Amino acid sequence: MPEPELPWPLLRAVAALADAPLAEIAERLRDALLPTFGCSALVIFTEDCTGRPQKKAGAEEITSRVSIAELDVLRGALPDEAPWQGEADIAGQARQVLALRHGPSNALLVLTDPKLAEPDPGFGLLEYLWDLTAKRIREKVADAPPSYLLESRAASAERVRVTAELTDLHSTTLETLLAALRSNALDDATARTTATNLAAKALVALRSYSDRTTDLVEEPVVRAFERLREDLRPLTSFSGIEVQFIEPPLNGRALPGEVAHAARAIVRGLVLAMMEQPEVRRVRTQWDCDGENLLINVRDDGGGALTTDDRGIARLDRRVQALTGQMRMDVMSGWGADVFVSLPLDLPTRPPGDVAAWNLAARELEVLQLLAAGHRNRTIASSMGISENTVKFHVRNLFKKLDVGSRTEAIALAHSRGMR
């Protein structure tokens, strides 16, 4: 019998999406949707991925300007989980959008300027691919591989820096405006009062935006530990092995998102490895914080069969090293294994260093300095008197020489060498 004709382009796109790394998942989803749901840009907003809550593909004038505040407002306005079409403020102006919220994770998908292949194409394919994407993001974040942790930490550092700079800039501007409008040199009391109220509201909104961004970057230690307890609850219910939880102090310092994800993944891995040993009846996990590090201790009461040569333990150690942490295992025959993990909460600080080892050409170094200062390609091109395509050429060379995969990683590495 002849083989049935299958939609191979679509199936290949689905396979590529299912295997996509987080850094490429927005581009892969856009490729899969493009034949049926064209758009000028595709934006994903997810709070599961604290290091990079926005994942974007498409027109740079949209992807470089869309804000968390705009996406948060749009998500809150969606009536349900069904696809919604309408007008929303995205990247600083009103645009036509097609938006869809993922119920289990509350993630948001936005297609700007949607172009439908048919007047009424149906949304089954869109909902299926979006569900697959949202679940893929959750799985990748929960696993917290070293590559994700490194990218997440670099992205967190850059967003915190940019947000802090924007907050300082706009706060100073608005406070100056308030001081001027309160001046006795202005006679129009009504205008001054109105302007003062507007500026005061703008300051409150700006500070609220800053707090919202911080909420996305960090997770309270108690909440992070409770999520760990939920992750391990099935094991405590069906394994027959007692899992004890020693909770962190209530006033413990909030954890950066990448540290919270890594901590849960590491403890899950350790508990599973310990429970696979014979004669284990009890596993205890404890979190603490000394103000600078998250301190993790996981201990079993088995016969001491676990070793650092175990493949699973080595994989967990790589996750610890990705965050410049330390892991130590003490094993005593007949008494079980005792594992200690320390994860620093702050980004490692290094004095300004020599960049000669990167072997950068003069133009490449200039581009890197402008990148580190927060400039986009268009601004860099104007500043250096070159085309945007030439800037992109230099940026690609920088990625290779610095051994990084994104602008964020390049900027974070430049900052670690003292470039600002």
TrEMBL record:
Pfam families named in the record: GerE
Record has DNA-binding as a keyword: yes
Highest taxon of the lineage: Bacteria
PROSITE patterns reported for this sequence: HTH_LUXR_1, HTH_LUXR_2
Annotated InterPro entries: HATPase_C_sf, Sig_transdc_resp-reg_C-effctor, Tscrpt_reg_LuxR_C, WH-like_DNA-bd_sf
Domain HTH luxR-type: start-end pairs: 353-418
Entry-linked CDD domains: LuxR_C_like
Keyword annotations of the record: DNA-binding, Transcription, Transcription regulation
A single MF term (Gene Ontology): DNA binding
GO BP: regulation of DNA-templated transcription
Protein name: Helix-turn-helix transcriptional regulator
Annotated organism of origin: Paenarthrobacter ureafaciens
